[in-house]
Design brief:
Length: 114
């Protein structure tokens, strides 16, 4: 495997959508997304398998625009016990062109409460 720095485009968004019996909600992540250390990349068939592509998301950085809903969300997510949602970028599945290059594709992620 080779190590690379992976940069997440500044326009990238993380949004949590949901609903209750009373309301629908949307929480947008308000901080810049980043992977802070180099990621090991191994090409497997037409996929790029990644190790170390961790993106920690602070629960307190999700905002609905409503302070009461924000507070309820933090309680529901047990922010005091688990202040982060850990997203791991596990694989990139590129749309390869005839020259073996790619500019877009899909991502496989793993999500864990920490």
């Amino acid at each position: 495997a080779q190590s690379y720095r992976i940069f997440i485009h500044p326009s990238s968004l993380v949004t949590v959508f949901g609903s209750t019996n009373v309301n629908q909600f949307r929480f947008k992540y308000t901080e810049q997304l980043e992977i802070k250390k180099p990621v090991d990349v191994l090409r497997s068939n037409r996929e790029l398998r990644l190790k170390g592509g961790d993106i920690p998301l602070k629960i307190k950085a999700f905002d609905s625009g409503n302070s009461i809903m924000n507070s309820d969300f933090r309680k529901m997510m047990k922010e005091e016990e688990n202040p982060y949602i850990q997203v791991e970028l596990a694989a990139l599945i590129p749309e390869w062109d005839e020259h073996g290059s790619w500019t877009k594709g899909k991502a496989e992620v793993m999500v864990e409460m920490k």
